[in-house]
Amino acid sequence: MAIPQIELNNGIHIPALGFGVYQTPPEETTTAVETALEVGYRHIDTAAAYLNERGVGDAIRRSGIDRDELFIETKVWITDYGYDSTLHAYDKAAGKLDLEQIDLLILHQALPGEFDLTIDAYKALERLLADGKVRAIGVSNFMPDHLERLLDATSVVPAINQIEVHPYFRQSALLEANAAHGIVSQAWSPIGGITFYRDGSHGSTLEDPTITKIARDHHKSAAQVMLRWHLQQGRQVIPKSVTPSRIAENFDVFDFELDADELDAIDALDTGVRGGPEPEEITREKFGLDIPEA
Question: Residue 66 falls within a domain, yes or no?
């Protein structure tokens, strides 16, 4: 089936539903991506810091799918920020992915304490965009003030801001800020963030009574309901799994619709508690990682 597309602010289109490979071991990545492509996914999201770009590239090559049918996204890690370093980060990513052009290249974090490096890195993305080496550029985990600082210093509005969004952490103010700038919100950990909660006090969204009731009413799984919630609210989503049955299940979300009351009920589950790291606490000293050459 054809996946619905979302138009980005520069006119290119991204599938509304993609496949993520965060925390997927390098040795399992190729098989997982091959499975996703066989199911019908056409957008793959990876990152330099995941250390599995090469496995994504292998799966793309083995699939035999025409390149123009695929949308490949990756991210520059903070240790490669700075104008020249980010240009080289592109070379490393393109080499591992075995691609001449990357569809979407984004900055993985804002690096608030060294925002001059963030600005320089983004200006390198602008250069790559102008040179046709990437089709779109964006950011990840940028908060509203980070976006304002970036927009004040650069020329190209990010096409996407990839952020943590799920029923227990909706980030409504950030979603509104993205929308106000014409930036698509891309949800990482879209079905719950359950592996990130520091104290586990909120349990699992997959077992939440509100979500499971809605799932029963639609004869769908809790994960499918959460993905549908994102899609109907205009977010692009990138669920991940290495289990073939779940990869297929997460793709099967286009044959039902949630009503307004159901969407509101899921919105009301927001706890305001972040599962991932605090964007303001990202530093090269704490989160430094040397990204290998291609």
Answer: yes
